[in-house]
Design goal:
The protein is mostly beta strands and about 475 residues long. It has a single domain (about 10-475), classed as YVTN repeat-like/Quinoprotein amine dehydrogenase (Methylamine Dehydrogenase, Chain H, 7 Propeller), CATH 2.130.10.10. It is about 5% helix and about 45% strand. It contains five helices and 37 strands. The strands form nine sheets. Strands 2, 32, 33, 34, 35 and 36 form a six-stranded antiparallel β-sheet that branches.
Length: about 475
């Protein structure tokens, strides 16, 4: 029987938002730059109950899309649930649909709530959004995509890809190669010979074309990867997936994971041009959700990542002990691993990049992904708030310093950098973040000046926005 987990914390960020709105103008405090034009689309969980049962893992919440549209200093806002099979069954029949990420619920409740005809994976794509062939999609860790209308946020349904690559899981963090004009991603296949199947989707097509296959003895859980001009880097953390258990529909993701800290982490380097694995490096065990960047320089491959020694609550659903509740061991630390490409393998170490713990890292992606960079934007903890990210950070990875935005009682979300048209500096632009104000029980969209990291203004939302995951800014999308 699955072990029951405690409910999500009693915190507004983990409470359901049932309200859906479409507002032509949000109240704005301060002044937004006139050049800021386009739409920020965000995705994340917003419903945490199935019937009278409260979900126990953040990642299981039902997906909701949010759209903030900017023009002439004004902000429009809309939000809407993704109308998936998972949503329909949860709201009309009090049933779960497909494999969940976390332990929801224990075996007795599972039998009562689980849809009899559930597939192995849920279609609740609640993590990120992307644009392909001029169309907009919501993603999670399943190898499927739900299309939606970016102007109305209406769900258009699951879209199959031509030549879809085999695999049971994928990542909601694809990379875009601006030179080759392709989107790159991978799946994890748990067939008799487990493998990571890399593929690319050319501009203007909904076709998955094979890039490389990396066979492994046991597959591991990876949430993201890195890409440079010539390489893709898969960092295989020792969170090992039991493939046989994974194929059983009622086992949640977490029930198939095993943290094996005695195993090294592996850096699998794939050459894009040759379509094959060219190097494998090892380091001491660690875990990460998110890569920051990777850079080719002087014969080395620099891999920057938000790492931790202990994948406790967010991955394994476990409680850390008191002596682990410090940023050195429990928090996420920006690290740089240096891979010497003149060798095909060996052990590598790391160096810290910042004087503060950081998660949900973002960069000036269009200009600096896979290239030399200086600034990253992410979430951090104040010294007395290790369980809730309550600071938005701008990190200088060259100097190892940071700037922070903080307001008492407020909890920012992922900071998305938007460059100013015609910008010449890496940080010439603004950073957008959805912030939950626990004091008022409502949220606002924060706009920070890129260079100074000072607040320019905020657009006030008439309700709270539950803790979401990721989003993208589309300067040419107007609603």
């Amino acid at each position: 029987m699955s072990t029951a987990r405690p409910p999500l914390p009693d915190f507004a960020g983990f409470t359901t938002l049932d309200r859906e709105v479409s507002l032509d103008r949000l109240p704005v405090r301060g002044a937004l730059p006139g050049w800021l034009s386009g739409t920020l689309l965000r995705n994340g969980p917003a419903k945490f109950e199935v019937g009278d049962y409260r979900l126990t893992h953040w990642f299981n919440g039902l997906a909701m899309l949010h759209a903030f549209s900017f023009a002439d200093g004004r902000v429009k806002y809309a939000n809407k649930f993704l109308r998936t099979t998972a949503y329909d069954l949860a709201t009309t029949k009090d049933q779960l649909y497909g494999k969940q990420f976390g332990y929801d619920p224990c075996e007795q409740l599972f039998g009562r709530h689980f849809a009899a005809y559930s597939p192995n994976l849920t279609d609740n794509t609640n993590v990120n959004v992307a644009r392909m062939a001029g169309r907009y999609f919501a993603f999670a860790e399943q190898p499927l995509a739900n299309e939606f209308d970016p102007r109305t946020l209406d769900t258009l349904g699951e879209v199959p890809f031509e030549g879809q690559v085999q695999g049971e899981t994928s990542t909601p963090h694809p990379h875009y190669d601006f030179d080759r004009r392709v989107l790159i991603n991978y799946t994890t296949s748990m067939a008799d010979r487990a493998a990571y199947q890399l593929f690319y989707v050319p501009d203007g097509e909904l076709v998955q074309r094979p890039l490389a296959t990396v066979e492994v003895g046991e597959p591991c859980y990876m949430h993201s990867f890195a890409a440079t001009e010539n390489y893709v880097v898969l960092v295989e953390f020792p969170v090992v997936i039991d493939a046989e258990r994974f194929r059983q529909a009622r086992n949640p993701f977490l029930a198939t994971f095993e943290w094996q800290p005695e195993r090294p982490a592996r850096f699998l380097v794939v050459d894009k041009r040759e379509g094959r694995l060219v190097a494998t490096f090892e380091s001491e065990a660690f875990f990460a959700f998110h890569h920051v960047n990777a850079v080719e320089t002087g014969g080395d491959l620099l891999v920057d990542i938000a790492a931790t020694h202990h994948p406790y609550e967010t991955v394994l659903g476990l409680e850390p002990t008191e002596d682990q509740l410090d940023l050195e061991t429990y928090g996420y630390q920006l690290r740089r691993y240096t891979l010497p490409l003149a060798r095909s393998g060996g052990s590598v170490g790391w160096e810290p990049l910042a004087d503060a713990g950081v998660e949900m890292p973002r960069i000036n992606y269009r200009q600096h992904n896979g290239r030399a960079y200086r600034y990253a934007y992410g979430l951090g903890h104040s010294p007395r708030s290790l369980r809730a990210m309550n600071r938005l950070l701008k990190v200088d990875v060259v100097a190892g310093t940071h700037k922070a935005w903080y307001e008492k009682g407020c909890f920012p979300g992922e900071g998305v950098f938007v460059p100013r048209p015609g910008a010449t500096g890496e940080d010439d632009g603004v950073v957008l973040s959805g912030v939950l104000d626990a004091r008022s029980g409502r949220s606002f969209l924060l706009v920070l000046d890129g260079p100074s990291f000072e607040e320019l203004g905020r657009a006030e939302v008439p309700h709270h926005i539950p803790n979401d995951f990721h989003g993208q800014f589309f300067p040419d999308l107007h609603r």
